[in-house]
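Sample intake — Transcriptional regulator
Collected from: Enorma massiliensis
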Amino acid sequence: MSCLACFFDYAAWDYGAEGFEVANLFASSRLARQFETGAPWVVSGRSGIELFWDMCGELGYDDEQAMIEQGFRPDRTPEYWAGWIAAYVQWRFALTFRTVFDVLPFDVLVDLYDPWHEASEERMAQLFAERMTSYRGQTNLARMRSACGYTQRELAELSGVSLRSIQMYEQRNKDINRAQASAVAQIARVLHCRVEDLLEAVVAVA
């Protein structure tokens, strides 16, 4: 949590990037996949500043100028807090960062700083769960299919999964999480993604 908090604090206050843009880049990066699985070198082996430059290098935004030095700030910034909470929510519900920022965009999270920074992490998790319940964006399947440029019919023909099934998964009339593993694997193969990327997040707060 501290590492990702520093990542966003540095990106916004020292590098001068827009927090929401950095959040979108991060969510799309291989670095985020490593973070999501708890890879030790990411979550504890590197500082937030080092991770920011790792991401820049991965995505081709790395220039040849020297690493910008971190400035002194007497208090935690809203971006620091937003990164802290994003890391907690991702871990708490085992979601991808893409889902986290789809449900609660980074700039919206920053705007919640006052007064929510005084609340506990678990209270923020409850707020996230409430928003997740009402979140009805595109399914992961629809998003991945669109990104690959396929129509539903084309995906059905290439994967061997019926058009009707694909339509029902995308409309949430059938739960893709309960679909036959072989069918989801066939779709994932065509879309060049992991099976996990097509499953829908299930959030529950005890």
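Post-analysis note: The CA atoms of residues 14 and 72 lie 10 Å apart.
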